[in-house]
Amino acid sequence: MFSGVYTALITPFKDGKIDYASLERIIEFQVQSGVAGIVSMGTTGESPTIPHDEHIEIIKKTAEIIKGRIHLMAGTGSNSTSEAIHLSERAQKAGADSVLLVNPYYNKPSQKGMIEHFAAISNSVDVPVVLYNIPGRTVVNFLPESVLELSSRAKNLCGVKEASGDITQMMRLIEICGDKIDVLSGDDSLLLPLLSVGGKGVVSVLSNILPSLVVEVVRLFEDEKHSEARALFYKLLPLARSMFVETNPIPIKAVMAKAGWCSPDVRLPLTELPAEKLADIVKLFEKSGEKI
Questions:
Q1: Which residues are catalytic?
Q2: I want to staple 181 with a disulfide (CB 3.0 to 4.6 A). Which of 18, 177, 235, 245 is the partner?
């Protein structure tokens, strides 16, 4: 069900408020560039600093702009099960095509606790569910065997955004879940390795600014043009790494601002990218032939 490139969309701000005019321009750019979908209100969208009503309003506005042309995945996870259920139900009503559920963070639940958490949320909505495994941010790691057990209890569990950074764990997930679960890379830098072992695509930060090129990597691989896919992947790899010279989404927001898509504003406790780091990123883009 899930394959290709899903852009982890930034949320543009202006004077502290959501800049909907810029959001519409950015979404149209994504649609025209051929991405499979957009992830609204994920980590890159600064969801931790966005109150619930604003969170749902952004999803609703995004759905209205997309008009069904591409897939809309909405981040609705929380460390509180009841809160995640509430957000997921509201996102479904707002027009989300699927929901993305991050591991419960801070309270460090067991595998059993996470299975119960995800099962309760999944069974509260009708849309497909994608798990988001990112232990670097949440501390807890949702293991492949737990995903398999959950799949027998949550019939709408369709995918996993895997951002553990552990390709062996991703391979184990694909091995035991087979065609039940579509595995997407949560890291641009692991897109091609994951495709090569059976992954289906990527939830991409870099595709905010270079969507057509990230889409092209997947297309070339699917067309069995492996050497061309590899060459393009390695061209993009330094750029993908540069998006994490500071905490995501600080660098991608700065790059999007430099390219004229939005302001560089981020909400506290995030702060804007220092000018010298932005200059280094710009040089990398120029070296690759992709000016911003």
A1: 132, 161
A2: 177
